[in-house]
Amino acid sequence: MAQAVDYSIFVATEADGRSQMSLAVDGIDCAACISDIEHGVMALPGVVRARLNYSTHRLTVEWDGAGEPAALVGRLETLGYRAHPFAGRAEEAEAKRAQWLLRCLGVAGFAMMNVMLLSVSVWAGNVTDITPETRDLFHWLSALIALPAAAYAGQPFFQSALRALRTRSLNMDVPISLGVILALGMSLVETILHREHAFFDSAVMLLFFLLAGRYLDHEARRRTRAVAGNLAALRGEMAQRLDASGSPVWVPVQALQTGDRILVAAGERIGADGVVEVGSSAVDEALITGETLPRAVVAGDTLYAGSLNGAGALTLRVTAGGEGTLIDDVQRLLDGALSQRAGYVRLADRVARLYAPVVHLTAFISAIGWLLLGASAHDAVMIAVAVLIITCPCALALAVPAVQVVATGRLFRAGLLVNAGDMLERMAGVDTVVFDKTGTLTLPEPELRLTADADPDLVALAARLALSSRHPLAAALARHAVGPALDGVEEMPGAGVRGTLEGQEVRLGSLAFCDAVLPPDMAPTATPIALRWGTRTLVIGLDQALRPDAVQVVADLKARGLDVRILSGDREGPVAAVARTLGIAHYGAGLRPADKIAALERLKAEGHMVLMVGDGLNDAPALAAARVSLSPASGVAVTQAQADAVFLGQRLAPVRAAIDGARTAARLMRQNLGLAVAYNFIAVPLAVSGHVTPLVAALAMSGSSILVTLNALRAGRPARGERTAAEAKAPSPALSTAEAHS
Amino acid sequence: MTILLYLVPAALGLGFAGLLAFLWSLKSGQYEDLDGAAVRILSDEDLKK
Q1: pLDDT recorded at residue A145
Q2: CB distance B36–A55 less than 8 Å?
Q3: Alpha helices by DSSP H, A309-346
Q4: Which of A76, A187, A279, A364 could form a disulfide with A314 if both were Cys (CB 3.0 to 4.6 A apart)?
């Protein structure tokens, strides 16, 4: 379609007059693609820099003066890559934080190595012949390195601890910060007093281990978010905005404002909520309500973003969602559902609430105890600080995040992008799985249903004719086309397409348009499309097909003792048919969003922990109300934002992988916490009885940290029957809606 | 023990040089595309010219 495209909202102009834009690129799979793309884009006039990030599949382009962003996208398309610009402002902040954590990690690592060098000399010297002067020198050098390094590298923990204290709560960072500060303070005092023991090495080692855990956790989440961002960008949601003179210009939907007038061609996805000004059509609102039958609309009716326009062209006036609209309802239900969930407390935080007071109390009691036993005030304080250092939750703070990082990585390879950090913990306790039907149990695109006596030549002809139609049903048929579209085919809005082949007229469209009758053995749930070529006719049914592994996955879920149910907005008939095929006894049909929430509340009241899997806008509040939620990558944006994780591809297997992975992860988290507690049972009596030297502290801390990290690595072992990475990365066909206007 | 006068500064200096090198590599964006670096090394583009 040779029409102007306005990408200007994605372009950032630098101070020196250069413009910059980032694009998500699809189809990169080999080393040669890098030079292909970079050289191809550099050849454009004005382009001064093009750099492809192979890890995130993103291209950054800089150009001088008045470059044309649309030409860039066109150039990439001729090279064979689908690309769409995106605005990554939210991700920039995350990238900055990752860099900051890495800088802190570098500083802590440097300090740890050098302080350890000095500490080992002191430990060796203490049992041989080190002079007190040399030991003091080494302690002072350690202080010189450790104090500034801890002041810099400890910031992530200090800041978070301060935030927690301000809200009068305790998190893991409070005992960490306290332990580090006390260890450093005490060591400094000991150094000034020319004593034998200093804990500088323990303090910086603690920071190093914890920062490594923080950084890995942050990176794992950033990676899944980058992939999710690419998916969203590559959908390329664009709309034809009518400018002042009334001529249409393609703009990204993010650029649309209330009051803009947009043109929606037949078969196009609607980019924004709006009121119909001109035209009439039937819209498929399966993504919004789950209803598979199209709804007829005329001027004055309200339409929602994400619905698919049928055969007629429409002009919409964009609204930001007025009072009492569906979107409004959804938003209100969402707010309510979200506040319900806030009651859940992360495992690590629950442990921290219990752990911090116990530790601080133990340290305090041991100081008092030693004073009562007649120890000097100095010795008593020394022992109290040693207790704080040895119990500093190095292993405990790594126990949960380390498992999370490894398990999230494994789910990522299984085609699951995890949004929420505590998703694994919540998922592990699930005993009921509720599926939406349309687009979740079934594929987002309809499949062909042929009668037994269908002529393959006529089916092939129908597919080639469908290439010329913009009707959404025709698009599903056109995917089966071999060979080019026929010449001279014209589209009759609301009826079908017609052309001429070998001297005879061919028609594809409704039953009436082709003068055909519905065959008796056609599936009742299918929507019929007819073909007439001269005197020969053919009727093809298009039906919502189940995801290829739906039966297997539902059976597997039941075998794991889960109660599987369906809650759908669709009519009773199709829902009952799907439930029968899958062997699901409990289902609800014709449900509005509020009904779905009510059904989930009933399950909750019965004591069930519910996993909700859904893709439509009508599912968004239910997703937020459930204990944990999943959404397919083909779902609408609002729904994906609510889901704890998004799964890719045509198959339902990631749902099973998510439950298995979460259960493994939860088991390992509990094991790790157990290990950390066992460590404390050994270490705390040692510290309380005054036997902890810096050498013991260093060994105990690194030993326990390494132990829980190694245990966490077990979460990465793939379960039986898990999908390979190649399969998981195959994009779902529903992502290619952008092709509708290219 | 006068040897410490040379060895300790030398050890700290080396460590510090390592830290500076790390911070420089971080600042110049060398950790932003770890997969890309592994693949780009296979390209022969620079030899043709």
Answers
A1: 94
A2: yes
A3: 326-341
A4: A279
- Identify all chain A residues contacting B16, using CB atoms and an 8 Å cutoff: 110
User: For residue A737, what pLDDT is reported?
Assistant: 31
Q: ipTM exceeding 0.90?
A: no
Residue of B nearest to A34 (CA): B40
- Among A79-93, A426-440, B11-25, top mean pLDDT goes to B11-25
Task: Judge residue A434's burial from the number of C-beta atoms within 10 Å of its C-beta, 0-12 exposed, 13-18 middle, 19 or more buried.
Answer: buried
Of A484-493, A606-615, A687-696, the one with minimum mean pLDDT is A484-493
Active site residue ranges of A: 436
Beta bridge partners of A239: A251
Residue for token pair 């250092």: A389
**Tens digit of pLDDT for each residue in A398-426?**
778 788 888 888 888 888 888 777 788 88
Backbone angles phi, psi at A629, to 5 degrees: -145, 150
On the question of pLDDT at A27 being above 60, the answer is yes
Q: At a CB cut-off of 8 Å and minimum separation 6, what does A544 contact?
A: A292, A438, A442, A443, A446, A447, A525, A574
Q: Which residues of A touch B (CB under 8 A)?
A: 30-32, 34-35, 39, 52-56, 95, 99, 102-103, 106-107, 110, 113-114, 117, 131, 134, 137, 141, 145
* Residue B46 identity: D
Gap between the Cα atoms of A289 and A279, Å rounded: 23
Beta-carbon separation of B23 and A145 below 8 A:
no
Residue, of A237 and B31, whose pLDDT is higher: B31
Set of chain B residues whose Cβ sits within 8 Å of the Cβ of A99:
26
| Facing B40 at nearest CB: one of A34, A106, A141 | A34
Q: What is the interface size between A and B, counted as CB pairs within 8 Å? A: 56
Structure tokens at A425: 């913990």
> How does DSSP classify residue A269?
B
Task: Give the predicted TM-score (pTM) of the model.
Answer: 0.73
The two tokens of residue A502 are 């070998």
Q: What is the mean pLDDT of chain A?
A: 80
Q: Which pLDDT score is estimated for A332? A: 62
Residue of A nearest to B27 (CA): A99
What pLDDT, on a 0 to 100 scale, did the predictor assign at position A331? 62
Which are the contacts of A387, defined by CB distance < 8 A and separation ≥ 6? A359, A362, A363, A366, A684, A687, A688
Shortest Cα distance, chain B CAs vs residue A159, angstroms = 22
Alpha-carbon torsion A51, A54, A59, A60, what sign?
negative
For position A235, what pLDDT does the model report? Answer: 65
CB A297 within 8 A of CB A251: no
Q: Which pLDDT score is estimated for A638? A: 67
User: What are the structure tokens assigned to A482, written together?
Assistant: 């071999």
Q: How far apart are CA A264 and CA A271, in angstroms?
A: 9
The pLDDT of residue A646 is 85
**Cα distance between residue A315 and residue A192, in whole Å:** 80
The CA distance from A100 to A102, in Å, is 5
Q: Which has the higher per-residue pLDDT, A625 or A482?
A: A625
Asked if the model's pLDDT at residue A738 lies above 50, the reply is no
Nearest-neighbour CA in chain B from A10: distance (Å): 21
Residue B20 in contact with partner chain A when CB distance is under 8 A: no
Q: Determine, for residues B42 and A113 on separate chains, whether the beta-carbon distance falls below 8 Å.
A: no
> Residue A87: is its pLDDT beyond 50?
yes
> Residue B31 and residue A102: Cβ atoms within 8 Å?
yes
The answer to whether A564 touches A435, Cβ cutoff 8 Å, is: yes
Report chain B (49 residues): mean pLDDT per 10 consecutive residues.
85 92 91 82 68
Scanning A392-484, the segments in alpha helix (DSSP H) are: 394-413, 423-428, 456-466, 472-478
Backbone region of residue A590 per phi and psi (left: phi > 0; alpha: psi in -120 to 50; beta: other values): left
How far apart, in Å, are the Cα atoms of A466 and each of A472, A504, B38? 10, 17, 44
